[in-house]
Amino acid sequence: MTCSRRNFLAGAGAVIFTTGVGASNLVGRKSLAATMDDGVKRYGMVHDETLCIGCTACTDACREVNNVPEGVSRLEIVRSEPQGEYPNVDYQFTRISCQHCDNAPCVHVCPTGAAYKDDETGIVAVDNFKCVGCGYCLAACPYQVRFFHPETKSADKCDFCRETNLKEGKQPACVESCPTKALTFGDLNDPNSEISQMITQKPVYRQKVELGTQPKMYKVPHGKGEIKG
């Protein structure tokens, strides 16, 4: 590293945060790991809120596979207030995690290139060795899903298990652990992938699309026909 965290922060002034507009579960018989080197992919995920039961098995699996320390989390499942009246009370469970934006604000504001979008997979990742801990990416993320890793002291977040399960040809840990199959992961550039088919066949929404972030995290709304921003 050419500049230390201390030197960088001492000389840092102000930063302008911009959000400019611009720029599957199934992958044939190949493993996910194999596809990471043979063409441009755009990995995304669908969280089906109609199937999610809020068990947090996904959160636990993510923590174990990616060695996420206690006190921070790459993924959370948030439960809504009770909906309806007894005995017909229901809850909505929403996933809070990195949206892997095609037009990621965190990438735009990072002064060292530590925050970047992988050209081969579309996954937004963090290079721990380049991160100087300035916190610009945490402030710029409109979804507020980044945090400082207490051990590496660098920014951290969900990376679809890019350095763990994907390298081993597996699905992300959250997908593998979900008992109700509420999560679907795959290549959005492949029209025949399960995720692409799901997006065309079911009502889905993405959060804060009006900001031009172009998120690749889709959600099937809890209420049929429900429209959300």
TrEMBL record:
Domain 4Fe-4S ferredoxin-type: 43-71, 85-120, 122-151
GO MF term set: 4 iron, 4 sulfur cluster binding; metal ion binding
Keyword annotations from UniProtKB, A to Z: 4Fe-4S, Iron, Iron-sulfur, Metal-binding, Repeat
Xref: InterPro entries: 4Fe4S_Fe-S-bd, 4Fe4S_Fe_S_CS, Cyt_c_NO2Rdtase_NrfC, ET_IronSulfur_Cluster-Binding, TAT_signal
Top-level taxon of origin: Bacteria
NCBIfam families listed in its UniProt record: cyt_nit_nrfC
Protein name: Cytochrome c nitrite reductase Fe-S protein
Gene that produces this protein: nrfC
